[in-house]
């Protein structure tokens, strides 16, 4: 067997989603664009911390970026159902590109102020409110249910490869040229994903609306549907806890780097890359096991491991120990996120999927303002170590309670798997 044939067999076995032409367009565009996104993420966090010196104000920026998701994501799910998702994504990605160029212009012309960053973060949050559930629901249209989990795992792989490469490039660029170039390159990177979207040819799923069906009733029906489902409901609750308390790295890591380790941009980029290395390992693990499908017990176990890693991070005091622990944190975070995301998409009915994913966006990203303000406040009062420990303890207690409360759902999932087989 020559190398080309062996490579084709390997892709077919472990990365089967890549055999879909439409998905390849989407995936290759994201490979480029997400590197720019991570460059902007670390650049913005460091810029705010440099301008203000306050971890609480850094938390407020994150809160502004995710507050619109908290307020409007349920309404976004209704919009996603009514229009072709490809057109929505072209619009949202174009807006993201414009906002990146705007921030780059402010920084490079030395006119940036904290208030301007807040406004741009809020606008980006409004845009992401529509973008996130659209991207999630679009996966089924371009790969089908059979390769859905593999596509989600590959998305996570791409995201976390970018989390390794982006912060590394961004840290060097900030040290040499300043944060403005991180934002500029992020704007340019959106050209790749827009090119991919334009070339995708997929039959869009647009839900037929029933007469006299109001928006609020549609939202209520979606929430009731989730609450009554024994798989979706515990998954959403676990995602709420992890999204609120365990994904505040853009706040805790720069504060930990500056105030605990007393290091600069390069160390910050290194720690973010360590998180990305662990996350990449987790994404690849999920890709290799994607044919087994999502398991509720895996989400339960991974969420508890995330809590333990957060506590240990708070007790660490050196770059190497912290980097190692962040790698493990990233690994279990992605195991949890990929498995939970796949379960919600796979077990949701077609007519409810966009609404289910809008709820997912709400509890996973929309809860970030609460978590950002909480972790920023604790970090201001008790330091980054205290914030890591507090988030870890609360995450562990809440996830253990949900696991105990919904332990009967594990047998229910086995029955559902038999029905779907």
UniProtKB/TrEMBL annotation:
UniProt-listed Gene3D superfamilies: MFS general substrate transporter like domains
Q: Which domain of life is it from?
A: Bacteria
| Keyword Metal-binding annotated | no
Cite the Major facilitator superfamily (MFS) profile domain residue spans from the record.
1-407
- How does the record say this protein sits in the membrane? Multi-pass membrane protein
Q: Which UniProt keywords apply?
A: Cell membrane, Membrane, Transmembrane, Transmembrane helix, Transport
Q: Which organism is it from?
A: Paenibacillus allorhizoplanae
**By its UniProt entry, which InterPro entries does this protein fall under?**
MFS_dom, MFS_trans_sf, TM_effector
Entry keyword Metal-binding: no
Q: Which gene encodes it?
A: entS
The record's PROSITE patterns line, in alphabetical order, gives:
MFS
Where found, per UniProt? Cell membrane
The name on file for this protein is Enterobactin exporter EntS
């Amino acid at each position: 067997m020559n190398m080309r044939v062996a490579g084709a067999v390997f892709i077919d076995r472990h990365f089967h989603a890549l055999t879909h032409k439409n998905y390849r367009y989407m995936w290759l565009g994201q490979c480029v664009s997400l590197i720019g996104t991570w460059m902007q993420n670390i650049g913005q966090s460091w810029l705010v911390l440099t301008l203000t010196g306050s971890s609480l104000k850094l938390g407020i920026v994150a809160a502004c970026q995710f507050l619109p998701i908290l307020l409007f994501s349920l309404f976004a799910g209704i919009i996603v159902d009514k229009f072709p998702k490809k057109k929505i994504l072209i619009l949202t990605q174009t807006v993201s590109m414009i906002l990146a160029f705007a921030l780059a212009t402010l920084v490079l012309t030395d006119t940036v102020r904290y208030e301007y960053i807040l406004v741009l973060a809020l606008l980006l949050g409004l845009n992401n409110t529509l973008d996130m559930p659209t991207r999630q629901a679009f996966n089924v249209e371009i790969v089908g249910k059979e390769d859905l989990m593999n596509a989600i795992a590959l998305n996570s792989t791409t995201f976390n490869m970018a989390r390794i490469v982006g912060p590394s490039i961004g840290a060097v660029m900030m040290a040499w040229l300043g944060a403005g170039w991180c934002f500029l390159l992020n704007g340019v990177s959106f050209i790749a994903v827009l090119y991919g979207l334009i070339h995708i040819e997929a039959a869009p799923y647009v839900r037929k609306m029933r007469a006299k069906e109001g928006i609020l009733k549609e939202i209520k029906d979606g929430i009731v549907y989730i609450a009554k489902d024994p798989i979706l409901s515990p998954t959403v609750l676990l995602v709420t806890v992890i999204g609120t308390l365990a994904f505040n790295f853009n706040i805790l890591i720069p504060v930990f780097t500056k105030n605990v380790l007393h290091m600069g941009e390069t160390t910050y980029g290194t720690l973010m890359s360590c998180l990305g290395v662990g996350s990449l390992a987790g994404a690849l693990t999920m890709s290799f096991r994607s044919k087994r499908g999502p398991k509720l017990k895996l989400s339960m176990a991974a969420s508890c491991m995330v809590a333990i890693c957060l506590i240990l991070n708070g007790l660490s005091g050196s770059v190497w120990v912290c980097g190692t622990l962040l790698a493990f944190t990233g690994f279990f975070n992605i195991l949890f996120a990929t498995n939970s995301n796949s379960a919600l998409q796979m077990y949701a009915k077609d007519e409810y999927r966009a609404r289910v994913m809008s709820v997912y966006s709400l509890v996973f990203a929309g809860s970030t303002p609460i978590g950002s303000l909480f972790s920023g406040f604790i970090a201001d009062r008790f330091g980054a170590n205290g914030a890591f420990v507090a988030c870890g303890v609360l995450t562990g207690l809440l996830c253990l309670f949900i696991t105990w409360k919904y332990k009967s759902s594990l047998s229910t999932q086995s029955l559902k798997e038999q029905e779907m087989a």
